[in-house]
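Everyone, study these two lines:
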Amino acid sequence: MPSPKTPPVARQVGADWTHRDGEGTTLTISVCRACSGRWFPPRDTCSTCASTDVEDIASDSRGRVYASSVVRIAPRGFQAPYVLTYVDISGVRLLAHSPGSDRALVPGSPVELTVAPIADTGDGPVMSYVVTPLDDQHAPTGEQ
């Protein structure tokens, strides 16, 4: 009798920088003590002034959309269309998937960080930090 297959284990993009608790999801960002530069993903050396006097802090769990676009031709493992969104959170701008819609988010609209699947490669789901709108703020169909 064949043995039952073990379901694939999810992989998570940015797992080292992503933190979940009962209050929400945050990311680790770096802050330079010399020039106040902020970076995500975190780094050991400031890209602005080259100081190594940086500290890692937790971001807020909410931010605002800077720009958003619908991807209509997807690489293997991704299901098109999907939305990519630049988001400003805690003084950094980051790129994140915005699942659950096929329409771009409106610039300036509030979003919340969470973790969700962004792809399925056949080896199991690929998880990542994502942003979800706090209200129904999507660009009209056709706008990106």
Summary: The mean pLDDT is 89. The chain is about 0% helix and 45% strand. The two ends are 53 Å apart (CA to CA). The CA atoms of residues 107 and 144 lie 10 Å apart.
